[in-house]
Design brief:
The complex is a heterodimer. Chain A is of the alpha+beta class. Chain A has three helices and five strands; from the N terminus they run E-H-H-E-E-H-E-E. In chain A, strand 2 and strand 3 form a beta hairpin. In chain A, helix 1 runs antiparallel to helix 2 and helix 2 packs antiparallel against helix 3. Chain B has one domain: STAS domain (Transcription Regulator spoIIAA), CATH 3.30.750. Chain B is globular and about 35 Å long. The chains are: A alpha+beta, B alpha/beta. At the A-B interface, helix 1, helix 2 and helix 3 of A face helix 2 and helix 3 of B.
Chain lengths: 134, 96
């Protein structure tokens, strides 16, 4: 059964978000490695919304839909300008230290850990959806 | 909850969850380091890209010094070690 949490548009919301995720992941008997990965994915994507979207909504919704077959969540941000997911810089993990620039590693981690990340935008509402099959 | 301690051996110990909200604590601590140091991850449960970014910035600053200095990392749990490997950050640190 889907469950939701409204998160304050602030990094202070990470604590409540982790508590919520820990409880739901434990309830669905998700293993420790996958639990780590799902929490990481949620943090990276939520943090990007807080830092980069000039959303006017007070909160961002976290909707979970976990089952025996798949772990799915979406973050919904309201009253935001259009976002081009293609604008996220490509991350090259093989670049030497001197050539590295900040940015991109969070989304790269998410894409490496989960099976699917999609961005949707409609009526000034942006939805980031993540799926990992069990 | 994230904490930073200095051990009796002079090592830096990270404890708890190093997320984006806690990364500035690590940044402040690392800015005080000007020579090679060991960071113990034994009590660290979680890290995200924000923590990786602070460690990377400190390592780059130390290695650009003359003579070069470096952070060494030890006791990373399997999940954190995997995050370092995926990001390619394992190439930048001596990890015990």
């Amino acid at each position: 059964m889907p469950v939701s949490l409204e998160l304050e548009r602030s990094l202070d919301a990470l604590g409540p978000m982790f508590e919520f995720l820990d409880a739901e992941l434990e309830r669905h008997e998700v293993d420790a490695r996958t639990t780590f990965g799902m929490k990481l994915a949620a943090e990276e994507l939520f943090t990007n919304l807080v830092r980069h979207n000039i959303g006017k909504g007070d909160t961002i919704s976290l909707n979970l839909d976990f089952s025996a077959e798949r772990l799915h969540f979406e973050l919904v941000d309201r009253d935001v300008d259009p976002f081009d997911a293609e604008s996220i810089p490509e991350y090259d993990k093989n670049l030497p230290m001197a050539e590295r620039k900040p940015g991109g590693v969070g989304v790269y981690l998410v894409r490496s850990i989960v099976d699917q990340v999609t961005y949707g935008y409609k009526d000034r509402k942006m939805t980031v959806s993540v799926t990992k099959y069990r | 909850m994230f904490k930073i301690e200095t051990t009796q051996e002079g090592e830096i110990r990270l404890l708890g969850r190093l997320d984006a909200a806690a990364a500035h604590q690590l940044e402040s601590a690392l800015q005080q380091i000007h020579s090679s140091a060991v960071i113990d991850f034994d009590k660290l449960d979680y890290i995200s890209s924000s923590g990786l970014g602070e460690l990377f910035a400190a390592q780059k600053r130390l290695q650009d010094q003359t003579p070069p200095q470096a952070l060494a990392l030890k006791n990373l749990n399997a999940h954190i070690r995997e995050v370092f490997a995926i990001a390619g950050f394992d190439a930048f640190f001596d990890i015990e």
